[in-house]
TrEMBL record:
It catalyses: an L-alpha-D-Hep-(1->5)-[alpha-Kdo-(2->4)]-alpha-Kdo-(2->6)-lipid A + ADP-L-glycero-beta-D-manno-heptose = an L-alpha-D-Hep-(1->3)-L-alpha-D-Hep-(1->5)-[alpha-Kdo-(2->4)]-alpha-Kdo-(2->6)-lipid A + ADP + H(+). The lineage of its organism: Bacteria, Bacillati, Bacillota, Clostridia, Halanaerobiales. This is lipopolysaccharide heptosyltransferase II. It is an enzyme of class 2 (transferase). GO terms for biological process: lipopolysaccharide core region biosynthetic process. The keyword Transmembrane applies. Its EC number is 2.4.99.24. Keywords: Glycosyltransferase, Membrane, Transferase, Transmembrane, Transmembrane helix. The chain crosses the membrane at residues 12-29. Pfam families: Glyco_transf_9 (PF01075). Gene3D superfamilies: Glycogen Phosphorylase B (3.40.50.2000). GO terms for cellular component: cytosol. GO terms for molecular function: ADP-heptose-lipopolysaccharide heptosyltransferase activity. The keyword Transcription does not apply.
Amino acid sequence: MNDNISKVKRILIIDLLYLGDLIFLTPFIRNLRNKYPKAKIDMIVNSSFFDIIEGNPYLDQVYAYNKKWSIKESWSFARRLSQNNYDLGLNPHGNWRTALLLKVINPAYTIGFGGKGRGIWLDQELAPADNMHMVDVYLNFLAEIGFESIDNQGIELQVNQEASENMADFLQKHGIKDEDRVVGLNTGGSWPTKQWTKDGFAQLGDRLQEEFKAKVIFFGGPGDVERVNEIVKMMNTTPIIATGKTTLKELAALAARCDLFISGDTGPVHVAAAVGTPTIALFGPSDEQKYRPYGQNHQVIENGIDCRPCGHHHCPLEHHKCLEEISAEDVLKRVDNSL
């Protein structure tokens, strides 16, 4: 291991990516703490997802960065953190914004993913490994800088006690008993192309309640409310709607109560996996090799169409067959193995 990082006392991680990416980074954080049990380890995260990571037991301080801040506000934020005099700065995100922020914060030694010229601001530039899950990409980052003992015990997320109590009250108000089988459905997606069909979710919700006698709960944030309301209007049965009604901590607590969680490739499915709930993830344009729910008891559905995974936010062929041609019956066949 490089002498510059063998005995550091103050470490900063910066990652402004999405919710799922933060979940994927949790083994990285845990292994960093195992290597430096007495160091101060801080992290900068996207303010939109601060709540989900602030309780991480391996971090001393989590700083929320608002991506809507002006250059002046970003500069002030970075200069303030520079006063912490970090020995080591780690950038597993590796874009221009994080590179610039880390440069201004100015840790004594910096390591990160570079490319496209960003490596000029790093003391040690790494290239992300290909053809592996993002969890393993991040763990490989640590191997590249000299970590000899790396545990791969999986992703993890602690459920907040207050959030758990709030969701217990929520479930009780909706008549959910301890013995009830509960299935979470998450209909949203950060890209339109990641969203399965409304009709598919409506059929799935009905059949889960009618044939499997499960209680269906719709998840999602405020931006998903309209879509979920449209789906519910298409249903013959009555589900429970938590969409737009939970914080991120409460989302994790509610997902932990589910016996199964079904979603496209988006943050909440990775939250569910992190709290130990079996998942079924529907993959369209994104690459399941990199982004599938990590660990055991998780299933991926993709229809094998030649043009996927394309990674596009809008279907370049204007048909979106990768998800539109997955039926509720296709999903229910997997449910039969999980409930």
